[in-house]
Backbone:
């Protein structure tokens, strides 16, 4: 609808500029149109090139399964390397299957072995070669010809080449333990007396689940997957204390409504061979049909942060624990993660 008015305005403008000469007005319009199109091309082409460059260099989508498989393969390779090294530190030919560097004579007595890989973190990436820092928990003999072992944390570096084949970068070295963190406490700090309904529910539930005394069904929520161990893992159970984070759980009578009430039970169980084991059971509970019930084992209980914590000035607020997943970088190649 605006095409005709704009065209008339354009004709009038160029005719005015040309002093009423129609031929000159057409020439001016043609030159203006060509200049405008050239300007558009000069600005549009760099924009298109910029978009293409961004597309070409956009981060590659991480295949979580492939990344997890890569880390598992690195851990396995590091385990076999450390195990070979500790089995006989003087066997240079066996060690060189994993490590090409200098293997000096070692006073370390043979007979050690790797237990598990504690972590494998991606390190540097240089010209397509990726390194990984792997910490392996191992055991080494206390002395030559000794059957007594001492635990030791060892760290080594594994590289993956352009074909994703592995090689150790260094001899394993000892890794000191991480300093202990500040102590946090469960937010279930309110004591529950042994004559309260909650106490009776958790007592009946744990007795049925752990020792096989009674049925767990009356104590768990409808549709719950909680079930008694079969055969029972323990012979007896005694409860030392029950604590909660809600005053509702301390009432003499069952409240009409309650949900997500956290309860922690300190119990002592006894195995068939008479061994006593103290345990803490964090539970999530609610009220249904006029009675307390166990909804689930609480996998993320609330905590109280210690006073003077660096993380937050409000240190007494209960916090529900959360879990996160860290995705490892994509491997440098897609071939099978294996090699010597």
Residues:
């Amino acid at each position: 609808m605006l095409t005709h008015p704009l065209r008339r305005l354009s004709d009038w403008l160029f005719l005015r500029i040309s002093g009423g000469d129609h031929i000159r007005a057409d020439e001016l319009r043609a030159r203006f149109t060509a200049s405008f199109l050239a300007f558009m091309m000069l600005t549009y082409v760099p924009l298109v090139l910029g978009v293409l460059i961004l597309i070409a260099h956009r981060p590659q989508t991480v295949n979580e399964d492939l990344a997890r498989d890569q880390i598992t393969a690195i851990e396995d390779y590091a385990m076999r390397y450390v195990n070979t090294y500790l089995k006989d530190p003087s066997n240079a030919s066996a060690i060189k299957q994993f490590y090409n560097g200098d293997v000096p004579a070692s006073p370390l007595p043979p007979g050690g072995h790797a237990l598990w890989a504690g972590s494998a973190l991606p390190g540097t990436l240089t010209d397509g070669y990726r390194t990984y820092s792997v910490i392996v928990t191992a055991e080494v003999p206390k002395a030559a010809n000794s059957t007594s072992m001492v635990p030791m944390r060892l760290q080594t570096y594994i590289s993956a080449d352009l074909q994703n084949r592995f090689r150790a970068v260094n001899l394993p070295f000892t890794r000191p333990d991480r300093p202990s963190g500040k102590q946090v406490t469960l937010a279930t700090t309110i004591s529950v007396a042994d004559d309260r309904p909650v106490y009776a529910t958790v007592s009946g539930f744990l007795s049925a689940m752990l020792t096989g005394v009674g049925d767990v069904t009356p104590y768990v929520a409808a549709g719950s997957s909680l079930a008694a161990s079969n055969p029972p893992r323990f012979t007896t159970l005694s409860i030392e204390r029950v604590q909660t984070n809600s005053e509702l759980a301390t009432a003499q009578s069952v409240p009409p409504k309650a949900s997500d009430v956290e309860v922690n039970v300190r119990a002592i169980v006894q195995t068939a061979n008479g061994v006593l084991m103290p345990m803490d059971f964090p539970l999530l509970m609610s009220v249904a049909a006029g009675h307390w019930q166990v909804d689930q084992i609480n996998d993320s209980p609330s905590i109280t942060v210690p006073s003077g914590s660096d993380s937050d000035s409000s240190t007494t607020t209960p916090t529900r624990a959360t879990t996160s997943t860290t995705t490892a970088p994509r491997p440098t190649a897609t071939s099978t993660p294996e090699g010597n």
In short: The chain has two domains: 64-174, 186-304+312-320.
